[in-house]
Amino acid sequence: MLDDPEFGELVEGERRKRDQNEDLELLEHIRQALYHTSYMESTHKPDYQLLIYTGILLVIGLIMITSIGVPKSIQISAPGVLYPSCDDATVDCYLLFKRHLMRMMIGVAAMFVVAKINYKLWEKISIWLFGLSILLLIIVLILGSSNNTFATSWLNLFNTSIQPTEFAKIALVFYLAHWFEKRRADVGNFQYGFIPFCVITGGFLLPILAQPDLGSSFVISAVAVGIYFAAGAKMRHLAVGFAAVILISMLILLSADHVRERFKAFVSTSAECREDYCWQTEQAQIAVGSGGFFGKGLAQGVQKSYWLPQASDDFIFAASAEELGFVRTALLVLLYGMIAYRGFMIAEGAPNGFAQLTAIGITVWITFQAFINIGVNINLFPVTGITLPFVSYGGSSLIASLIGIGILLNISKYSSHASGFHRRRNSGTRPAQYRRY
């Protein structure tokens, strides 16, 4: 049988097929390596859609601070004038507008500078940024100022103040993205994944809770969990973490009077409450309700002048709803939804794990904070004291958020799904990434 010519031809044919398959596999490995290299090194234009949505929000914020910020501008510029008038040289009715415009220009400049910096640099210095942010958070507890609030969150420098917590959010995103990228195999492990994650996040939150800045703590926790989930966390580990957060929240609720009052204001209102700790929530609801579908018009709102505290800061959405109405504020909400969509699309096509987790963290940070602020303004959540990104008056929040957008724009240059204006690459040949969301 071995001498049979037909059998010999059959064996030779099988051998040829095997050699061809091996050659094809080798060629496929080479093609994958070449594609991976070109994918990593090739760049294209940034995500202009993300830039446009951010720009629209900045313009809306500038307009609304011009319209809403007049009473607070008068209060700051002429506190001793009995009957202030914008015609009076000592009264600056547009002080908030001028300050916000200056901060916005600094933030936009920072955004474009960061958009030019390769995202890989942040991975290299993520540990240093993380350590520096913790150091600043500790310094705030020692040398910080409350600036007429409950939290000691600001460092007063010269004629301005800085809130380190806002910039610490970026540092945490970088560090967690770097940490999970280096520990892919341990993400689903309870001892080497979940416990260290809790220690890192909990240790980072301690000085923020000590301020106490519960709103920022809530946002930072959501960002950390979002990155952990995208990195491949097991659901049972997340359930344990959620139970621990509920327990810690209950302890804080029982120990901090102002937190307990805010929760009581959210659960129910009374005549006594409306004159005390429910005042902001009550007045915000009045502002939103009185705006109707199309609003009273710019500069025609009443709540901002006498009744609604922090109308240009934490409650700018409610004050805007009174002047713009439901239809226009719904478009404002839609813009944040589009930023979330573009951010997750950038993450979906990110070239590596660090870039993907960084994009997810920044997107969750900005959009989650926006929707929590909106929820507070319409009484879906207790008062948290966080700003509306790109719209609220507040330099640290504005600049930090714009830096976050700049980082997303840089990652989008390397992302296969960066913009609807660019044809997608073949995602089937792209290296495997973290879980899709």
Summarize the structure.
The protein is mostly helical and about 425 residues long. Helices cover about 70% and strands about 0% of the residues. A two-stranded antiparallel ribbon has the order 1-2.
Can you give keywords for this protein?
437 residues; mainly alpha; two-stranded antiparallel ribbon; 17 helices; 68% helix
Q: Within the largest sheet, what's the order of strands?
A: 1-2
- State which percent range the strand residues make up: under 5%
**Taking all residues together, what is the mean pLDDT?**
82
Share in helix: 55-70%
Order of helices and strands: HHHHHHEEHHHHHHHHHHH
Q: Give the end-to-end Cα distance, rounded to a whole number of Å.
A: 59 Å
The rough form would be described as globular
Number of helices: 17
How would you characterize the largest beta sheet? 2 strands, antiparallel
How many domains is the backbone divided into? 1
Tally of DSSP β-strands: 2
Taking pLDDT < 50 over at least 5 consecutive residues as the criterion, the unreliable ranges are: 35-41, 420-432
Radius of gyration: 26 Å
Which secondary-structure class do the elements indicate? mainly alpha
Provide an overview of this structure:
It is a single chain. The chain is an all-alpha fold and 437 residues long. It has one domain. It has 17 helices and two strands. A two-stranded antiparallel ribbon has the order 1-2. A hairpin with a 2-residue loop joins strand 1 and strand 2. The protein is globular, with a radius of gyration of 26 Å. About 5% of the residues have low confidence.
